[in-house]
């Protein structure tokens, strides 16, 4: 496991300490989770962009044209 030393502004440190305490986790665990979430978001965005780049508009339109034209179910009007 790698080690990372960070210098944080006191205001951010106070927020991290408060949030970690309220979540019942260590500061290290909170920071680890935040970094993991950010990495996951970036990787998901990259994956979706690659998929979108491979998309064919004509294929998409053909699929959408198969959707029946009908009124929405009650409660789904908006």
Structural write-up:
64% of the residues lie in helices and 0% in strands. The chain has 78 residues and is mainly α. The chain has a domain at 11-64. The mean pLDDT is 94.
Summed up:
The chain is 64% helix and 0% strand.
List keywords for this structure.
78 residues; mainly alpha; 3 helices; 64% helix; elongated
Topology of helices and strands:
Layout: H1 10-23, H2 27-54, H3 57-64
Helix pairs in contact: 1-2
The secondary structure category is mainly alpha
Q: Mean pLDDT, rounded to whole units?
A: 94
Number of beta-strand segments: 0
Task: Work out the helix count.
Answer: 3
> End-to-end span in angstroms?
50 Å
